[in-house]
User: Which sequence fits this backbone?
């Protein structure tokens, strides 16, 4: 009887866990779709910025701006984006492997960093990396105020020639069941990278996969410029950096929710299997107990007859 009670309690515990993981799976699915919608809603702004850029900077190589010009001196910057919360499979460990590869590649260079998320902060502090800004990443949405704060710090040190390059390590959202850790240069800004960003905002699979950007959407168009093109370009370049950072955070957030949804689905399925196995064990144990009791009764009756 003690064994039957233990099996029953264990199955009840597994069923309760299954309900929790199923609820977390549903919540993460909703949050993932919202993150994708936010990324797509910001794409129109990115496309218009690229059109204006094509109009006023036909020769990108001739643009003289601190965020565009290549530098040989200065530290190397790393923007590391991870999550604060767990239960998301190998999401953070995959990004941190990319970050470690970056640190190993530039072991002889000075490294400064911006840490987004608890795991990023712990990783960088454990390696004695100078952190210029650290932020939590426990919100379900990405605030523009946080994005601007990151962009301002990065652009400030780059403009002051304190850094030569900035690279971001984050998890790029491909589809619901596929996310890839990415190391991508964000400074100096490169036109090709900005155009790739506009193309990659829509996922390759899933609900929003038909939202692909056409090459015509970012072609040069005619604009009547009221101020001088240089002042417009200065403001535009910072906004493009801001778009880059904001999209990176959105991709990371969508990847986090997706990875957690997949992890919780796997946990729910496993809990269902365990519950079924425990039910079989419980039925076998109960049947064995009934058989034993019947045998004891039968033996008692036979003994009384003798």
Assistant:
């Amino acid at each position: 009887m003690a064994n039957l009670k233990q099996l029953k309690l264990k199955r009840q515990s597994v069923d309760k866990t299954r309900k929790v993981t199923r609820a977390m799976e549903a919540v993460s699915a909703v949050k993932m779709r919202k993150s994708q919608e936010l990324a797509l809603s910001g794409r129109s702004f990115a496309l218009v910025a690229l059109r204006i850029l094509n109009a006023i900077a036909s020769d990108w190589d001739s643009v003289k701006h601190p965020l565009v010009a290549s530098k040989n001196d200065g530290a190397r910057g790393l923007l590391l984006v991870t999550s604060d919360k767990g239960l998301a499979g190998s999401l953070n460990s995959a990004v941190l492997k990319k970050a470690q590869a970056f640190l190993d590649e530039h072991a002889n260079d000075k490294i400064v960093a911006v840490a987004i998320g608890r795991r990023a902060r712990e990783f960088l502090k454990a390696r004695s990396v100078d952190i210029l800004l650290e932020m939590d990443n426990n919100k379900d949405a990405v605030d523009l105020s946080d994005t601007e704060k990151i962009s301002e710090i990065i652009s400030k040190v780059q403009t002051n020639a304190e850094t030569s390059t900035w690279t971001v390590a984050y998890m790029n959202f491909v589809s619901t069941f596929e996310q890839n850790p990415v190391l991508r240069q964000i400074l100096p800004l490169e036109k090709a990278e900005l155009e790739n960003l506009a193309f990659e905002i829509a996922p390759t699979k899933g609900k929003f996969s038909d939202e692909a950007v056409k090459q015509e959407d970012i072609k040069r168009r005619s604009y009547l410029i009221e101020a001088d093109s240089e002042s417009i370009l200065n403001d535009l370049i910072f906004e493009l950096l801001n778009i880059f950072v904001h999209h990176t955070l959105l991709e990371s957030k969508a990847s986090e929710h997706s990875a957690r949804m997949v992890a919780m689905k796997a946990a729910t399925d496993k809990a269902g299997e365990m519950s079924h196995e425990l039910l079989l064990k419980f039925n076998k144990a109960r049947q064995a107990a009934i058989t034993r009791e019947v045998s004891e009764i039968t033996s008692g009756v036979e003994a009384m007859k003798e």
Summary: The chain has a mean pLDDT of 78. The domain at 2-26+262-305 is CATH 1.10.287.80 (Helix Hairpins). The two ends are 31 Å apart (CA to CA). The CA atoms of residues 82 and 120 lie 6 Å apart.
